[in-house]
């Protein structure tokens, strides 16, 4: 090997080392920086509220402002991390691949898989009709299809991040597990009722895409880009709702008398859970806006089961999705769909009011 070849080899080695440092070192530094900033949020909020502005912890204004200053950056930082990760995971699940995974499964197994896939796939109310049609045309049972359509909006990554940030992993785990239970059970029950006759006839007549399932291949660099895109699109879209929801929650936290919510949303009010579901079913709110309000209500004495029932009915039975599904489902099946899911939410509400 001559001098020029040795020089070229050294240059290639140096470039490779720099590339490795960029790929590994920079993300590691960003994670460390994120952790240090996250740990300092509460001390900074306390200093700003109580030292710089001179407010007291017992004052309504001081309590409200401290809650707001601490919660907004905390939730947004958690949101960025989790949405980035979910964005990468979603790159593995195109609509075609999701259909391929579910097609040909036994119904009970299909309900479980469908609900699990609903958590990580990027589908919302606007995609309900094409997804429903694609699943039906792929031979996926009606109950399995509805398990997916229930889980996809109900178990929302934004709600999961907010619940984790405000209440810890136990409440976040309760949210995921109960959402899965409702999606799996409701889909299974609807499947047993044999309600295919209440699907609009044209859905079955519509020809499935003859091209089959896509086998798109993407690299890890592409998946990282998918994560970044998810952060830009999701966080960029929901941050105003996060701030607005936390602002409302901060007002409740600071000004609503302690224990007031216990009188109308507490365990002693037997009618609180059904009332929460009845109020939540016709409503539609972004998860980012409703969860901070739920957090503040819990802090003022609302029962966990009642609050979860209200949140799940708002997120899981959104009015836009119901209207969109009317294009492919007859009113009888829409009524069964809403009724079964609402009944499952009722059970969850009462159950957690008893346990907690």
Question: Please, how many domains?
Answer: 1
Residue runs with pLDDT of under 50 for 5 or more positions: 207-215
Largest sheet properties: none
Beta-sheet strand percentage? under 5%
Q: Taking Cα atoms only, what radius of gyration do you get, to the nearest Å?
A: 24 Å
Q: Helix content range of the residues, please?
A: over 70%
SS field, number of helical segments: 17
User: What's the mean pLDDT score?
Assistant: 76
Shape category? globular
Quick one: how many beta strands? Answer: 0
Along the chain, the helix and strand elements come as HHHHHHHHHHHHHHHHH
Going by helix content, strand content and strand pairing, the class is mainly alpha
Tell me about this structure.
This protein has 356 residues and is mainly α. It has one domain (40-355). 76% of the residues lie in helices and 0% in strands. The chain has helices at 3-39, 41-52, 60-90, 95-102, 107-120, 128-137, 142-154, 157-167, 169-192, 201-205, 220-255, 262-265, 272-280, 287-299, 304-316, 319-325, 331-355. Helix 3 runs antiparallel to helix 11. The longest helix is centred in the first third of the chain and has 37 residues, at 3-39. It is globular. The termini are far apart. 37% of the residues are buried.
């Amino acid at each position: 090997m001559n001098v020029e070849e040795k020089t070229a080899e050294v240059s290639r080695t140096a470039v490779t080392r720099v590339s490795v440092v960029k790929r590994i070192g920079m993300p590691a530094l960003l994670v460390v920086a994120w952790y240090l900033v996250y740990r300092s949020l509460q001390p900074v909020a306390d200093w700003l509220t109580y030292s710089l502005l001179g407010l007291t912890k017992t004052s309504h204004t001081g309590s409200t402002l401290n809650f707001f200053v601490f919660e907004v950056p905390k939730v947004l930082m958690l949101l960025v991390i989790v949405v980035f990760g979910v964005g990468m995971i979603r790159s593995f699940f195109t609509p075609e691949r999701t259909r391929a995974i579910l097609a040909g499964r036994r119904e009970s197994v299909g309900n479980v898989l469908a609900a699990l896939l609903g958590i990580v796939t990027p589908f919302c109310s606007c995609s309900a009709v094409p997804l429903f049609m694609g699943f039906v045309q792929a031979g996926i049972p009606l109950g399995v299809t509805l398990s997916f359509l229930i889980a996809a909006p109900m178990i929302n990554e934004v709600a999961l991040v907010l619940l984790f940030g405000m209440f810890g992993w136990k409440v976040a785990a309760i949210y995921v597990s109960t959402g899965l239970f409702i999606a799996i059970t409701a889909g299974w029950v609807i499947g047993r009722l044999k309600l295919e006759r209440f699907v609009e006839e044209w859905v079955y007549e519509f020809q499935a895409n003859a091209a089959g399932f896509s086998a798109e291949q993407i690299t890890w660099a592409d998946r990282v880009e998918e994560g970044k895109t998810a952060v830009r699109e999701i966080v960029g879209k929901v941050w105003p709702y996060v701030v607005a929801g936390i602002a409302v929650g901060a007002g409740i936290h600071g000004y609503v008398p302690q224990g007031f919510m216990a009188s109308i949303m507490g365990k002693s009010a037997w009618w609180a859970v059904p009332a929460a579901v009845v109020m939540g079913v016709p409503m539609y709110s972004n998860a980012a806006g409703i969860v901070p309000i739920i957090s503040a209500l819990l802090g003022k004495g609302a029962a966990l089961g009642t609050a979860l029932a209200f949140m799940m009915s708002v997120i899981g039975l959104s009015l836009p999705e119901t209207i969109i599904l009317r294009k492919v489902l007859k009113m009888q099946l829409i009524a069964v769909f809403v009724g079964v899911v609402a009944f499952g939410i009722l059970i969850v509400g009462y159950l957690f009011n008893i346990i907690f």
